[in-house]
Amino acid sequence: MNWAVSLRLVAAEEFLSVTGLVLLLIAGWAGDKAARAITWLSVAALAVAAVLVAPALTHGAMGAETSAFFGQFAADSFASFAKLLVYGAAGVSLALAPGFFERFGQFRAEYPILGLFAALGMGIMVSATDMLTLYIGLEMNSLAAYVLAAMLKTDDRSPEAGLKYFVLGSLASGILLFGISLTYGFAGTTNFAGISHALQGTMSTGALFGLVFILAGLAFKISAVPFHMWTPDVYEGAPTPVTTFFATAPKVAALALTMRVALVAFGAQMAAWQQIIAFLALASIIVGALGAIGQGNIKRLLAYSSINNVGFMLIGLAAATAGGASAVLVYLAIYIVMSLGGFAVILQLRDAEGQSVESISDLAGLSRTKPGLAFVLAMVMFSLAGIPPLFGFWGKFVVFQAAVAAGLVPLATVGIAASVIGAFYYLKVIKVMYFDEPADKVAGSLDPVHGLVLYASALFISPLGYLLTGWLGGLAHSAAAALFHGA
């Protein structure tokens, strides 16, 4: 192994590590009064990291030249695509945070640093080509996330959310680790390529149990049914900027990790995991849609919406083809922008005292009191529902197209039928905003940073977004090809 080459391939991780440690020292010396400055320095660090990883995607990097540290880390185009989404989502989430926490006098200097280290862990996750690297990256992300969920001490729901996330996350990590140990026992290696080679032919019962436990642990991280129980409570209880972060960056990392584990480590046993993924997809679509119908809190509704959308993404993974993987990445990119736009609106929903407005009933008549906010939120809702001509429709279309091309017509048919259920609760929010009498709950002016995120996301998910389909599809295809290189 060439150490110089390996260190060059992990340049983004090295930069984030050093930056995080330096910012931690600054936070220790300057205290919370430097929180806003540290936040913008963290956003700048994520932007630099994105620049460092982008060439791997544009050049279609794959194969042995992207492998570092004895095959434990891959800086290929797939990892680059996922990291760009992770760093972008994390950066926007951090930029949206200062205004929220400063209203409560709870903006801590540690907040952006935890976000930075969580992004570092997620970068390791999406590049992991060894079970040990996978676990290190996942735990680095999770440990930071547990603290972030409990960050708002003035709200009792926040520590409760942090505790629930910690307990259930620890259980999921234990399940995942048990699956890794079983897989190691029957494959004799923790390297993804080695596992794929060892599991050629008939799969033993022990190795199958290892696969099931690993998928169960990862299903928790992507909040797929039946491992979704933490999502509504954590989304509602965590501070809204943290919920914005949870709904975007970790979702990318966990789903990308699941794709690499399924298609690379267990690529020789697609028949073994395809049925599991198909079940997770259908269960998530149906439970997410039905669970959202009765929700009165907008953050809980978006939690069930995220479960529902994960189900659609898993349909693309169930196809087990390069086209399916590419479709998942396209859907993921569009979903991240929709989520950031939706939560940017929610962060602006506050009453005259500065308290957050989260009840859907309190949004009544918002179109007459805050027409700009209502318009963007309506666009996000229509796009999440997959209603053309908004860009959210394209994500669903490419996923179902990939499933049909792979011969999974029944799965695609049920998914399309279930997506109609989801349209109901999205339209309910729009009906409350546009047709109910004004509740006059929402007050305050639009923050410049929030306004930039709002209107940029609205522009992306508008019909103009279709101008990007060729470019986005090309990048996703290049990224997905890295997973099937040498298969």
TrEMBL record:
Transmembrane segments: 15-31, 38-58, 78-97, 109-128, 165-187, 207-230, 272-294, 301-322, 328-350, 371-391, 397-427, 448-468
Entry's EC annotation: 7.1.1.-
A Gene Ontology biological process term: ATP synthesis coupled electron transport
GO molecular-function term, one example from the UniProt record: quinone binding
Domain of life: Bacteria
Membrane topology, record value: Multi-pass membrane protein
This protein's UniProt keywords: Cell membrane, Membrane, NAD, Oxidoreductase, Quinone, Translocase, Transmembrane, Transmembrane helix, Transport, Ubiquinone
Enzyme class, UniProt record, top EC level: translocase
A GO term from the CC aspect: plasma membrane
Subcellular location: Cell membrane; Endomembrane system; Membrane
NADH:quinone oxidoreductase/Mrp antiporter transmembrane domain: residues covered: 128-422
Principal location listed in the UniProt entry: membrane
Catalytic activity: a quinone + NADH + 5 H(+)(in) = a quinol + NAD(+) + 4 H(+)(out)
Function, in words: NDH-1 shuttles electrons from NADH, via FMN and iron-sulfur (Fe-S) centers, to quinones in the respiratory chain. The immediate electron acceptor for the enzyme in this species is believed to be ubiquinone. Couples the redox reaction to proton translocation (for every two electrons transferred, four hydrogen ions are translocated across the cytoplasmic membrane), and thus conserves the redox energy in a proton gradient.
Quaternary context: NDH-1 is composed of 14 different subunits. Subunits NuoA, H, J, K, L, M, N constitute the membrane sector of the complex.
Family, per entry: Belongs to the complex I subunit 2 family.
Protein's name according to its UniProt entry: NADH-quinone oxidoreductase subunit N
Species assigned in the record: Novosphingobium umbonatum
Organism ancestry: Bacteria, Pseudomonadati, Pseudomonadota, Alphaproteobacteria, Sphingomonadales
